[in-house]
Amino acid sequence: MGDRFYAEDDDFFVSNRGRKGGRNSGGGGSGGSSKKFTTFRNRKQQQQKHPRNQRDLPVSFNDNAGSSRGGGSGQGSSFPKHPPHLKGKAIGLYYASLSKKKKEAEGGKEKEKKAEKMEGGVTINISREMEDQIRSMLEQLPRYLGNSVEDQMPGSSHAESASVTTKYNHLPDSQFKKNFLRSLTETIDSKIERLLKTHSALERNPSKDKELKDRLLDKKENSKKYKTMYEARKKLPSFKMQESILDLVNKNQVVVISGETGCGKTTQVAQFILDDYIMRNEGSLCRILCTQPRRISATSVAERVASERDEQIGTVSVGYQIRLEKAVAPKQGSILYCTTGILLEWMQSDPSLADTSHIILDEIHERDTVSDFVITLLKDILPKRPDLKVILMSATLNADHFSRYFYNCPSLNIPGFTFPVEEFYLEDVIEMLRFQFPMSRKKWGQGENGNDFADVIGPHIRYLEKHRKYSRKTIEALRNPESEEINYELLSRLISYICQHKPDGAILVFLPGWEQISKLNTSLTGIDHFKSSMFNIIPLHSLMPTSVQKSVFDRPPKGVRKIILATNIAETSITIDDVVYVVDCGKIKMKNYDIKNNIQTLKPEWVSLANAKQRKGRAGRVKPGICYHLFSKGREMTLQDYPLPEMLRSRLDEVIIKIKMLQLGAASPFLDKVLNPPDPLAVTHSLELLRLMNVLDSSENLTPLGYNLGKLPVDPHTGKMLLMGALFSCVDPVCSVAASLSFKDAFMIPLGKEKEVDRIRMQLSNGSKSDLLLTGDVLMQWEMEVKNGNGGPFCWRNFLSQNTLNMLKDLKKQFVHHLHDMKFLETSNPFADASNVNSNNTSLVRAIICAGLYPNVAYLHKCRRIGSGRNVKKMTTPQDGRVVMHPKCVNDKETYFPSPFFVYHLKLKSASITLHDTTMVYPLPLLFFGEKIRYYQENGKEKVAVGKHLHFRCKHSIASIVLELREHMNRLLEYRASHPAVIPWEDRKHPHTTLLKAIVQLITYEDAGMIQIDSSDESDDDSDLVAMEEI
Predict the structure, then answer these.
(1) Which helix (H) or strand (E) holds 795?
(2) pLDDT tens across 837-846, in order?
(3) pLDDT value of residue 262
(4) N or C, fewer C-beta in 10 Å, the chain?
């Protein structure tokens, strides 16, 4: 071991385990008896014997005590001392620049070294006593679990060469196997044909027809509420086109209806169709499904329509169904509003949609992935269901696109009504405010997109100069590249101008994200003018408390100006009636997919013309309004017409699993038929990941594991986590983690309280080194507090959203119901003892998180706290090289890590590549749940490798145990995936129980202290150790 650790038994990775506060409970306690390792208290004693400068304390592994960066003599560093005039951050930037030049001089071999960076010097070591104990347990297993399974496992050459029907002959027959093999051999066409023979479509019921007609006529004659609502409906633009709409729908199988917000198409078209059937004595033959892209839209529209029909929702003719919630009316003679995802789930079980007469796909112009998928699927199904009607409803902008996709089907446009909105652009605002941007460090032609700025703004400036409409100072301001950046002083002055010179009316400001909302709020509240009670500044973001979000709909008292700072959620999802002024910064933060580098990105980008039009329209709902676009007229001419469809800016993992579950054949041919087909390379990337996770085999067929994952309403990583949680009997904590991954963070961040929320998160994490263990623990703690009647105070103290926690609780229940229905659990109670034998074993829960998130692995090379108190880390992934943790991660604030390995849920590229929801993990879970492992020797050292990138030092005797356990586990996983059943944990002699207990014992033992880090494999060069603020 290197002298940076003083002595081998003072290894930081082990000695700091005392900080974890006894979170582990479970087998393998003998790990603490090894004399090789010391306690945290002993480490403190060692530090007293070997005092160091506080600045150079070894806060983590590989701490270079001899190196000296800024301010030192330069000894121990390959770089000279920095120039004496540099201070603070400039020193770090100086050394970062030298480091970059050094790497370039060495030939730019950074990419080639990525695989080596994941190796480090980690040694897997267990005591002889534990080794003997595990071997004894292995000897108790029956012979059939000990045989080699490589020739039978999915992924092996023998298995892949076999036909689909014979590949799984080694598995005993079962109902699951029958259904699974049918999913591999049957096509959607043959399934629809089979279902239509056994599932009858809606049948005529004369008595039901009469009942429906009598009820409707009675309302028209006797219901005061119905009559009032009917008069209001008659004022909508769509009502005036009722006959034209019905004529078009009745004569065609597919139609496109377009119209602006407020024309009434969402609430009225379905009612027109239903009432027409009822009045023709055919009400029993009508069942309409109307999809919405969001949950809130489905429920609120259903409630509105039920109110217009003077009904209790879910009782007569109007209902809704969303995830975890439904109020469904009888099938015959009814309208059901649902999310598009719900419709896709139904099509998975019955793609013929035999009991449906009409499908209305609303808001299809938003181009979300699920809507595009359903549209493609319906196009294939319609020839087999000639009686099924499809109505596509879209905003006016791109209706023709959908019409062409459905063979130029007829379309109809409903004119909307909004008040006129006056528009101003950046040049107008600069002229109005006489604003000047700060001097830019960028030269002309070096704007946000390189020469794009000069190419776009140059001709526009020449045009403005020619027409002499604007002053010279305005022209010079436009020439400054800073004019295309978000400027908070400009925003503040514009808002002040509106407040001082314009009549009453709320101001809606569109910003890209939370960071920009927070900065503008700080800027405004720092102005004395806005500290008055005459102004109500409301941030609108999902991180804000629900009570704050709801307050945007409240009209302020007379004389009080409401100022709303919002993201693009305010474009279409909500309507704020009193908005008169819109300030559009012109930027939007959207997830995209960098196909070439196989990474998702999240960067502010220019809005599309469709976005800009929607934002402008927010100002004209109740009276004439004004929209201020903070981009120039020249920039507007370069904006895209519409946002990129979600399918073109997302990974396709879940889409491909849906394709397989719906028996649509190979992924690429189906995706080629989508409205805007994704790049073939994106398909390839997702297929590679699904094969790596054993969701698909090499022939692109589902494996038994993949078939089970396809039944769960989550992404494959989270689904695998759920199945492993059921297998290892730790359902409560794993389902809590899965719920948090499937919805949103329960923590709220009130403006100005960011640091306090960070402190609370660190406190609640209790040294777990995991964002996911934190969120899972918070949900379970809250559930206990609710039982004791203290749920509300617990949320208040810890900045938690009770509404979000309630949703997470319901999600957890849904997951357990799914696992119970799939026969993996004996009860649907998430707290049942039989489902939580190992739930108190945090080491195991951490390992199951690793099993779910693999291959999302990162390696931490260096970690140090520098003089200013900031944490600096050097972290890499095999695919990307240098990465950083998101500042919201609890591990970003931590400095002590017993292991250098981390798994993460999400990786996004913005200014840097950022990891979200990280969890520190130990080596053995990577060996048990990662790719194929192999033992080898290199330079006289014994090693074991997981896939291409993860390498550990490991004695042959230990490697053979791990390999044998892994082989048994692979066989068990395949058997349990194809024969779902509960593991009999109470039967200690059952071979499945024995095997899993051996794995649990090793995992728990490792977490208790048996990991050794040899610093000699790591470079002493700290020149690329950069603080988060500098990245």
Answers:
(1) helix 791-797
(2) 999 999 999 9
(3) 74
(4) C
